[in-house]
Design brief:
Radius of gyration: 24 Å
Distance between the termini: 49 Å
Number of strands: 4
Number of helices: 10
Largest sheet: 2 strands, antiparallel
Oligomer: single chain
Order of helices and strands: EEHHHEHHHEHHHH
Amino acid sequence: MATARNPAPLIRPLITPEGVDLRVKLANAGTRASAFLLDVVIIVAAAVAVSLVAIFGLGGLGLREAEPLFVVWIIFIFLLRNVYFIAFEAGRRAATPGKRIVGVRVASRGGAGLTIDQVIARNLMRELEVFLPLSIIAVRGGTGVADMLSTIFGLVWALLFSLFPLFNRDRLRIGDLLAGTWVVEAPKLALVEDLSLRQDPAAGRFHFSPAQLDAYGIAELHRLEEVLRRDDYFAMKAVAETIGRKIGATIEPNDSKAFLTAYYGELRAHLERKLLLGNRKADKYAR
């Protein structure tokens, strides 16, 4: 039984569609808070820069003429923070700059690739969790109608949602619960780039036809990369068997790593060639 002095490790199974357990470590609440604060600093800096440019450019306008522009500014800030989080988390690394700095990323709890719907859901929910109450307080304060009761209510609202990850075992926000996501550790690795450049003499024995390479897409390429980076014998054996069945190849257990290294390199090159031709295969279900 875990105690306060010896908390249970935040290790969770992450089963891919191929049945491989990658096992991930969840980011703790402090790490998530640090990443969020870093992102807020970046967003605020961008907002201040744009605001200063707008102020100098429209400095000749009177107060009445500037009121509609204030509404436009509020809408711009709303779009800025949401586009920032959604665009970065929908990317290949599934992480904002703040998350990348502290070494975490967003992942789907179902084990499949992170979808744009999940990214949008978890980030729009942040508006209700944090930004909406704080925005109301800021607007009311700016117009001189803020009162102590509404200010306390807004701060308590934001605080309760912000502290929610402390009260569930998977350190999930409300947005994570709704979107089916969690935030996991993604430490920087020494081998950060092209795994297809790894020299494995045994991998030269394997060659694949275009039809065999068409069996998988970008999402599967990313999961295969994770398996190779982990360098776990049993995970590689399971994935090699799955891919072998899919493409009609028989793989000996001892050849699993060489087979996957070769398949990864050829699949990556195959997908890159297709991208150059405007054909993007997102996953194995795409046509």
